[in-house]
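User: I'm curious whether this sequence folds into something compact or stays loose and floppy. Could you predict its structure so I can see for myself?
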Amino acid sequence: MNITLRVLLILFSIGFFGLMWGMAARKKLDLNYMLLWLALALILILTVVFPSISIHVSAVLGFEVASNFVFFVLIGFIILICTSFSIHITKLNKKSNSLIQRMAVREYDASHDIQKHHSQKTLVIIPSYNESENIQNTIMDLTSNAPFADYIIINDGSTDNTADICHKNNLHFIDLPMNLGIGGAVQTGYQFAKKHNYDIAVQFDGDGQHNAIHINPLIEKIQNGTDIAVGSRFIEKEGFQSSTIRRIGIKWICLLMKILFHKHVTDPTSGFRVCNKKMISIFADEYPTDYPEPEILALIFRRKCTYTELPVKMNARPGGISSISRIKSFHYMLKVTLAIFNVLIQK
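Assistant: Here's the prediction. I'll summarize afterward.
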């Protein structure tokens, strides 16, 4: 392969990934596909810079190395086809998720007395996936320490008996027929809050790690004019502090927030959050799907919304298994980093 073709392929790979990144930033391409295109671009660059790799791999697999022209045309054709599939699948996923959310909220409204069960001005949104061991205690904590607020559990397509426990104990829950991920579940709660005109929304995990006694101080910050208040476990460093791998990821995200947005954040992955009516409206329409907490902070910083943190004490998960394993933690950090940069370049 001559030097001119090598340079062209390298420029093509870099330019193509830049194009994919731009599409992901405009929400036309899912971040998962963007990661695949990053991997493809790196493979192409390595193949061009070190042609012996492709020759060696071809020999191992028993293939003849195609001519440069055939190779270039074949790769280009495959990329065009896969790009088209990626874009269409992203659109279909968005539409199907939105339809599932609307239908689930509508089904809940049709089967409940909204005036009776949702008469307060504050709504606690509780995303839950396979939380059968924790959900009852979570609601007991809420009703004891935050009786001034309504609550809604978003059962995110759980495969255990979370839904059965909610039914048996007459808990208020929206039952999603399939797993939409933490972002989709939380957004369903915000859509419910917007539809029923709540003034304040509280994100509160269903795994027992959050303590309802901290809700009122966070609400007071909202009542004093803050757009979003977050409970941070790292200000006073009391209670459960997360695993070592996750703390490394948290520090990396904090550094990104400091460099990119000039904001001091101590707990960007905290799911214990309270926001006002303006943010409810924004989140009901626009909310990241996977691991949304850091991306949401980047979004509100870019929009010049006001933000504060208060110290809270969190608990170790009393039961069940976290959805983020050690292996997924590295994938999480990569996706979150790309998502934050996407927010930065959005128009």
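Summary: The CA atoms of residues 191 and 269 lie 22 Å apart. The mean pLDDT is 84.
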